[in-house]
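sorry for the late reply, my laptop died twice this morning and i had to redo everyting from scratch. anyway the thing you sent over, i finally got around to it. pasting the sequence first so we're on the same page, its 286 residues, then the predicted structure underneath. double check i copied it right bc i was rushing
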Amino acid sequence: MLNNVISKNKYIVRSSRKPARLLLAIGILISASLIIAAVFAPVLAPNDPYSVDIRNAFQPSGFEFPFGTDQLGRCILSRLLFGARTSLTTAILVTAVTFLIGITVGAVCGLFAGKLLDKALTALCEIILAFPGIILALVISGTLGPGILNMMLAIALVSWAGFSRVVRSLVISVKDAEYITTARTAGTRGIKLVTRHIFPNISGAMFTILVTNLGNTILQIAGLSFLGLGAQPPTAEWGMMINDARSFISGNPSLILYPIAAVSMAVLGFHLIGDGLKDISDSNEV
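ok and here's the structure:
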């Protein structure tokens, strides 16, 4: 009877891994395609994304302009490709800064859990998390002024707190494990303890959160650029393309649908990777 139950559970675990791996594969395919498009944008773009020609405004899809042109006669496909370069590069840089700040603060809080330093940093995180992230980023970005660098700083200042809280929980969950106690007994302390023994054992969970956060960051960047606080003309960027096209949504809906689809695909791709990794990790723990 017990063997039957164990065999059944193993079958359920193996079955649950299949859709998770499928989600992961689809996410990797979407994300890799967008990254390749961003890296090779100068080669793939059929036209100069910044070339203005009013005579070609609102051209339909064709051989010269596969996705048509915008109100200034610029090639939409070319601007989408270069927009991928701007949006993804900005998102990766912001996520990297957020990761470094969050992992540092989270590790410190986890190691000194319950002490004054942990209470002070945790209180700061709670204050930041008490406000809706996009609203707080909007306030900070609006105060600093429009521009990509100010937008990146605003998003990083808002996003690190959530990541820090998760890292703190992960560190606390493993810092009293037997292998950590053994390392401490052997004289391992401080940064060496964290980098050699704690982080390797929580790296999978941190990577999953990092990838998911990358998708959220792309959405935040597009939102702030849509409001005019991110990339400025004539830079090709998805959020700004959506903002530029909203005045022509009734007559030329494709102008706004293409960049919206690009943002949606980017967010979907990274979220599928995160969800797939999480499901696979959960099934391995069963």
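Residues 1-15 have pLDDT under 50 and may be disordered.
thats about all i looked at so far, will dig more tmrw
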